[in-house]
């Protein structure tokens, strides 16, 4: 089975974790931004996480340099376009790009300018390639609740015009959901869909709370429902889709080896799983690589891949017309 030839859908991809290293250097030079190195090999080392990090926090440090060059409208538009270009070239037909707008205002951009720039980059790529995309706005868990409200309010006018969902991400502590009940509730009232990073770092209970307290329709990662029967049952019974990212989970030590990743066990038990990159540059991966992991480790068949693809179609935060278009490919 040649995955490069098969259609793909990506529901969990961070913009700032997927910047081309050569683009980082180019923008830094053009905009006079100081970065540690200006040669491609050293920048690659700085922005790509090792195969095994000590923790999720070590993995997250790889985002610092990319964010330095994501502070202008032009750079955000270019980086978004390039992400979709890279995706389209490996037959990704639909992608949801997530990013935290508050990380891109250090040089004076407004939240609206940040969001508009990313939407423009998606539209540029849609005009040139056979791919469609939407935006998920992430709120950082370490920020205040007021900042989360800011993101929800700023993105409101772009709902169904490129923005489709709200997310919580960053370092994961136990019981984070309670803090964000009100801003996520408001987001749902405005029409945002909801996906929450949870259960990535050993706390399966966070997944249960993301569903029960925040109304999550999808969960980013969700690996540790394997150790929390209540969370596992709520995900399975409610048909919550897991956005799973095998390579990233190895790097952050969520899982100790690919063969021990719960992806296939979940799939065989009827849990709705999807396969994603998380971060193309930070994890040095793409969708073809991730799919080949499933083939190598679990020997998945075409029919199983087709079901995973259709899980992604069903879970995508997009309109029925686009979902019909995506189903035609497989």
From TrEMBL:
Keywords: Hydrolase, Metal-binding, Nucleotide metabolism, Zinc. NCBIfam families: aden_deam. One of its GO terms (cellular component) is cytosol. Its cofactor is Zn(2+). Transmembrane segments: none annotated. Substrate binds at residues 14, 16, 170. Its EC number is 3.5.4.4. The record marks 221 as: Important for catalytic activity. It catalyses: adenosine + H2O + H(+) = inosine + NH4(+); 2'-deoxyadenosine + H2O + H(+) = 2'-deoxyinosine + NH4(+). Residues 7-327 form the Adenosine deaminase domain. It is an enzyme of class 3 (hydrolase). This is Adenosine deaminase. Gene3D superfamilies: Metal-dependent hydrolases. PANTHER family: ADENOSINE DEAMINASE (PTHR11409). Binds 1 zinc ion per subunit. One of its GO terms (biological process) is hypoxanthine salvage. Belongs to the metallo-dependent hydrolases superfamily. Adenosine and AMP deaminases family. Adenosine deaminase subfamily. Catalyzes the hydrolytic deamination of adenosine and 2-deoxyadenosine. CDD domains: ADA. The active site is at residue 200.
């Amino acid at each position: 089975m040649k995955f490069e030839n098969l259609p793909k859908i990506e529901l969990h991809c961070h913009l700032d974790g997927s910047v081309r290293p050569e683009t980082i250097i180019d923008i830094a030079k053009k905009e006079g931004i100081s970065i540690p190195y200006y040669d491609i090999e050293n920048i690659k080392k700085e922005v790509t996480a090792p195969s095994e990090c000590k923790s999720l926090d070590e993995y997250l440090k790889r985002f610092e340099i990319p964010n330095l060059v994501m502070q202008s409208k032009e750079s955000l538009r270019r980086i978004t376009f390039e992400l979709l270009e890279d995706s389209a070239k490996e037959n990704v037909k639909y992608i949801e790009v997530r990013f935290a707008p508050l990380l891109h205002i250090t040089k004076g951009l407004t939240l609206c300018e940040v969001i508009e720039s990313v939407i423009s980059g998606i539209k540029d790529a849609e005009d040139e390639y056979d791919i469609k995309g939407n935006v998920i706005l992430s709120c950082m868990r370490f920020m205040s609740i007021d900042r989360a409200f800011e993101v929800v309010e700023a993105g409101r006018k772009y709902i169904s015009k490129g923005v489709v969902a709200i997310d919580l991400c960053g370092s994961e502590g136990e019981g984070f959901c309670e803090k964000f009940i009100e801003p996520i509730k408001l987001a749902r009232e405005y029409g945002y869909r909801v996906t929450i990073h949870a259960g990535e770092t050993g706390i399966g209970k966070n997944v249960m709370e993301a569903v029960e307290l925040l109304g999550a329709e999808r969960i980013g990662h969700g690996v540790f429902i394997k150790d929390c029967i209540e969370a596992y049952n709520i995900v399975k019974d409610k048909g919550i889709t897991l956005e799973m990212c095998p390579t990233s989970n190895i790097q952050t030590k969520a899982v100790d080896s690919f063969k021990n990743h719960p992806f296939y066990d979940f799939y065989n038990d009827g849990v709705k799983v999807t396969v994603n990159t998380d971060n193309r540059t930070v994890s040095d991966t793409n969708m073809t690589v991730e799919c080949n992991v499933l083939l190598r480790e679990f020997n998945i068949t075409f029919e199983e891949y087709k079901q995973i693809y259709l899980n992604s179609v069903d879970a995508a935060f997009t309109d029925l017309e686009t979902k019909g278009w995506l189903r035609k490919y497989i």
